[in-house]
Design a protein that fits this description.
Length: 318
């Protein structure tokens, strides 16, 4: 099996995820190289320890960077802390206004509350950054190299997390407007109200995109080991609960067929887990990728890997 159908579909948003160290970045980069043959592609990484620069053999910044030797391909490493800072700078006045007008806290107390680090908000802001780029329509396809599974699931829970946050702020805003109507007998739409409406629209768009099987696909990357099989099951189960389309699994780092006793034993050990995944994920497309003799870095090696991914030839070249 292969990823050929990905290039022949209407997909626009493709995420790569799995446990740490299974080769997500390499698979995302190789896929991006292939898709850039026909589409203008932007590849993001949300991993706190990004390695896209190593894959492409060039510096990748926190703004779209043209990938050398690959026309139509751009890459970007999202700095979550920077994105969060930009968000606070852009919307800080509106959020402080809501907190100050909707609570009995003193101004300095609301400012302290605003500066608190909210767990998971960095992932939220990373996703919002991606959505902002998608809104611009400057690219045709958007690929995301996600962080290890735990971070990724928080990222995918963005709609619920952000929705609860907006509901909290909305409740404070409702109290303020109720008081204004009571004393002034009138009210008017303010920038803080517009901020809440815009954020609510963002949540709705994210929900719609993540659950759109015609536009979105989550590619699970794994390796043929016992713990990896278990984590893959948990990840796919979580994706199903969130109704996020996921039909593709890449099994990476498979030992090649060889006459050497050590290689035979390793491959035999791996085969039982490969077969188990084929039985468990009967309705998924499983693409097998053989362990490479050297690191897959640089455009030439990524192009070779992308050929294997999209033609379904798992074995190494001789």
């Amino acid at each position: 099996m292969s990823l050929r159908h990905v290039s022949q579909s209407s997909l626009q948003f493709i995420l790569f995820g799995g446990k740490g160290g299974v080769g997500k970045t390499t698979m995302a980069a190789a896929t991006a190289v292939e898709l850039a043959r026909k589409h203008k592609v932007l590849l993001f990484t949300t991993d706190p320890a990004p390695s896209l620069a190593d894959s492409f053999g060039q510096t990748i910044g926190n703004e779209p960077t043209a990938v050398e030797q690959v026309p139509n391909l751009f890459a970007m490493e999202i700095d979550a802390s920077k994105v969060l800072k930009e968000f606070k700078e852009e919307y800080g006045n509106e959020i402080l206004e809501i907190l100050q007008q909707g609570t009995y806290l003193a101004d300095e107390e609301t400012e302290e509350l605003f500066q608190l680090e909210i767990p998971g908000l960095d992932e939220v802001m990373s996703f919002k950054k991606i959505m902002d780029f998608m809104e611009s329509s400057d690219y045709e396809m958007y690929l995301v190299d996600t962080a290890p599974t735990g971070h990724t699931l928080r990222l995918l829970m963005l709609p619920d997390l952000l929705d609860n946050w907006i509901k909290f702020l909305g409740t404070l805003r409702w109290k303020y407007h109720t008081m204004v109507r009571h004393f002034a007998q009138k009210e008017h739409i303010e920038s803080a109200d517009k901020f809440l409406v815009d954020m609510k629209k963002t949540v709705k768009k994210v929900h719609s995109l993540l659950q759109n099987e015609e536009k979105t696909e989550f590619v699970v990357v794994t390796i043929p080991e016992k713990m990896a099989v278990s984590e893959t099951q948990d990840l796919i189960h979580s994706l199903e609960k969130m109704q996020i389309p996921s039909q593709d699994i890449i099994i990476n780092n498979i030992f090649p067929q060889d006459e050497c006793d050590f290689m035979k034993q390793r491959r035999s050990f791996q085969d039982q887990y490969i077969q188990k995944m084929k039985e468990i994920f009967l309705h998924h497309t499983i693409t097998e990728v053989v362990l490479q003799a050297t690191e897959v870095q640089g455009i030439a090696r990524l192009q070779t890997l992308s050929t294997r991914l999209f033609t379904g030839t798992p074995e190494e070249d001789g």
